[in-house]
């Protein structure tokens, strides 16, 4: 160092410039950004009000058909990352409109999708040869690389939330997609086959579950899930941070229903304010029932049915329901758990 005398700063800059030309860079200028003491704070909390999003979606319905759009959906982007189709670091959210008579043509891709129905009764999606009719609050899965098309033979629009692992797959650059030869895939199984075969507490005798497989049950109806929450609420044992919170699971493995997206259904009775909580999985919340507000860091979000908000990584959250409330939520928790990365902070509160 003595050799460079008083011009150390200039010598360093010159050195960095020479490194850059050779596609190299000094670790010590970026180490604390790369290996941060706590998760980055570059993601924002945000809320989308349903009435607002719905208006835009109906406008889209006048401007483009489902066939031309392939999927008529409006992406909810985290305000921190415009143009990136990300609502959290790894996950995507959009609101999709399927109008009466629409054909959202068959395609398949390596990205996994969840649907959570916000409005409408009885439109369908077909997944690998089987149709399922969808109702408000149903959680429906399109597994990776399965053919799927959507349609609506009812007289009312259907609107659902699309949750996909698009940013995760993009980051790993593992995207493949194919468009079907026909708009509609061939229906090869009767409606109700999957719930009977896999979703009734019974499995085919020689069924072999693969680790990390997507659940063979591809529609988790709200009615059954809601009834279960009611019974659990009556039994008590509320978690101070979560109230009653259940995860959707693959009945063959006991693991999350989807490999890349963990999904949850949660009940908070009127007046039950939750204790402070944070975790490393940035989470998208959908208000299925109820109204109230949440504090996400210092920000207050007032919410009602079908509003959607996102809680950033490691941001402290509390919920304050003014009526009996049900949340659907999703995050990359399952991925983080498998990689040994997931952490939570309950600020001293014990789980229920
Ligand atoms: O419904 O198949 O929001 O493939 C994004 C990609 C929906 C779908 C999205 C998709 C779909
Ligand atoms: Fe798709």
Bound molecules: 2,5-dihydroxybenzoic acid, fe (ii) ion
Q: In the CATH hierarchy, what is the architecture at level 2?
A: Sandwich
Number of domains: 1
Structural class: alpha+beta
Structure characterization notes:
With 352 residues, the protein is α+β, with helices and mostly antiparallel strands. The chain has one domain (46-345): Jelly Rolls, CATH 2.60.120. It contains 8 helices and 22 strands. The protein has helices spanning 8-21, 31-34, 50-63, 66-69, 166-172, 193-198, 222-235, 333-338; strands spanning 46-48, 73-75, 92-98, 103-109, 113-119, 124-127, 130-133, 139-142, 148-151, 158-164, 177-179, 219-220, 244-247, 262-268, 278-279, 283-289, 292-296, 299-303, 308-311, 317-321, 325-331, 344-345. The strands form 5 sheets. It has a 6-stranded antiparallel sheet with strand order 1-19-16-21-14-13. The chain starts with 7 loop residues before the first helix and ends in a 7-residue tail after the last strand. The mean pLDDT is 97. It binds 2,5-dihydroxybenzoic acid (GTQ) and fe (ii) ion (FE2). Fe (ii) ion binds at residues 107, 109, 113, 148.
């Amino acid at each position: 160092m003595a050799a460079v005398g008083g011009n150390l700063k200039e010598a360093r800059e010159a050195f960095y410039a020479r490194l850059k030309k050779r596609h190299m860079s000094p670790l010590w200028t970026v180490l604390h950004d790369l290996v941060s003491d706590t998760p980055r704070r570059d993601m924002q909390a945000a809320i989308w009000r349903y009435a607002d999003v719905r208006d835009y979606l109906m406008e889209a319905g006048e401007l483009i058909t489902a066939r031309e759009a392939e999927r008529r959906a409006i992406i909810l982007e985290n305000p921190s990352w415009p143009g990136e189709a990300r609502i959290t670091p790894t996950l995507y959210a959009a609101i999709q409109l399927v109008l009466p008579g629409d054909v959202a043509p068959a395609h398949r891709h390596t990205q996994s999708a969840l649907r959570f129905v916000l409005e409408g009764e009885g439109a369908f999606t077909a997944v690998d040869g089987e149709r399922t009719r969808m109702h408000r609050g149903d959680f429906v899965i399109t597994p990776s690389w399965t053919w799927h098309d959507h349609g609506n033979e009812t007289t009312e629009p259907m609107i659902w939330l699309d949750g996909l692992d698009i940013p995760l797959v993009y980051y790993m650059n593992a995207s493949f997609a194919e468009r079907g030869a026909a708009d509609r895939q061939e229906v090869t199984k009767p409606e109700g086959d999957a719930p009977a075969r896999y979703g009734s507490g019974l499995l085919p005798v020689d069924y072999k579950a693969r680790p990390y497989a997507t659940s063979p049950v591809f529609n988790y109806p709200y009615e059954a899930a809601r009834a279960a929450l009611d019974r659990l609420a009556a039994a008590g044992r509320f978690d101070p941070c979560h109230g009653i919170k259940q995860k959707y699971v693959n009945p063959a493995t006991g693991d999350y229903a989807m490999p890349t997206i963990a999904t949850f259904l949660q009940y908070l009775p009127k007046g039950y304010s939750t204790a402070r909580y944070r975790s490393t999985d940035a989470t998208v919340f959908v208000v299925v029932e109820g109204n109230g507000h949440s504090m996400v860091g210092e920000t207050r979000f007032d919410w009602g049915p079908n509003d959607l908000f996102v809680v950033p990584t490691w941001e402290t959250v509390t919920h304050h329901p003014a009526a009996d409330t049900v949340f659907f939520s999703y995050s990359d928790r399952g991925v983080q758990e498998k990689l040994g990365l997931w952490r939570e902070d309950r600020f001293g509160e014990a789980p229920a």
